[in-house]
């Protein structure tokens, strides 16, 4: 029943957002700027303070330590000649998206920027609510919803601070940019690393039992050599990359480990090095492509992996990659990924990874896998 009577995430901590809106509605005079940011703006002139800031329809704030290659000098021009309008529009979307992320990255990192001040306050509140003695696995859904809600709120508030270089005159291009740039693609990747340590700890606690069973399976599979493991997983023998196994005089084929599908294993290990769910998805996609590339090299022809072919190979790669909290990683991706990217290849790969994760947990797998 926990959570049935809690305040929705978007309605929590309204006092923080109300203070920020009062600052926006105050006309941003020098007194309100100093009051909100907590320092005298006259002493910050060399750091391009907020003294000249004005808020009308949109607000422009000079970033501290800006240089001549700042965002104000970036433009998004259409290519000349026979380049299609669609290509030009896509390039414009990519350029504007990159500019927007660069600007907001600086804003969120700066204590001299109202958005940075707001984010710092939200982080402190989040840590006080969900970390330390307050940490409990049943609070996971509340914490996850709160981070997503903050990303959406900050994305909406960011429009008040965009410089002129990020304004778009073409209505069709502006609509396309709105469709492609949202809280999940712009603000969430920027703020998630700051919430990630406490948030991921909650995921680890929530999936502790599953991850413990999964890790026992990993330890059992680790006892098997490459050929024994591929045979145990019932991988077709014509897909085995045996040419990658180089034996010394003192080695036997039956004892060699960690030499097959090495590129895919190294790629998959990067899934735990980033907080961004889209980066994790990209890592999973690259792992799939590395597996497929190795199989294509072995067969000496193009080969598209079906789910039946992919699953045993992915189990091999996952078992050798030894990701400690794979269940927490998997569920964080599903919870925090952009809803517009659901379906298609992303769902295919996440389903395959989840199947591998469930398979490694099985008790009968551990009882069958011990070397004789």
Give the CATH level 1 class of the domain at 201-246 and 257-368: Mainly Alpha
Strand arrangement across the biggest beta sheet: 1-2
Average pLDDT taken over every residue: 79
Specify the biggest β-sheet.
Answer: 2 strands, antiparallel
Summarize the amount of helix as a percent range. Answer: 55-70%
Helix and strand content put the structural class at: mainly alpha
Strand % is: under 5%
Order of helices and strands: HHEEHHHHHHHHHHHHH
Number of helical segments?
A: 15
CA(first)-CA(last) distance:
49 Å
Radius of gyration: 25 Å
Low-confidence stretches: 41-84
Organism: Scyliorhinus torazame
Domain VPS9: 223-369
GO biological process, one term: endosomal transport
GO molecular function: guanyl-nucleotide exchange factor activity; small GTPase binding
Characterise this structure.
With 372 residues, this protein is mainly alpha-helical. It has a domain at 201-246 and 257-368: VPS9 domain (Glutathione S-transferase Yfyf (Class Pi), Chain A, domain 2, Up-down Bundle), CATH 1.20.1050. It has helices spanning 14-25, 30-37, 85-109, 114-130, 140-158, 171-180, 187-206, 208-221, 226-232, 262-268, 277-299, 307-321, 326-336, 344-361, 363-369; strands spanning 54-55, 59-60. A two-stranded antiparallel sheet has the order 1-2. A hairpin with a 3-residue loop joins strand 1 (54-55) and strand 2. The radius of gyration is 25 Å and the shape is elongated. The two termini are 49 Å apart. The relative contact order is 0.09.
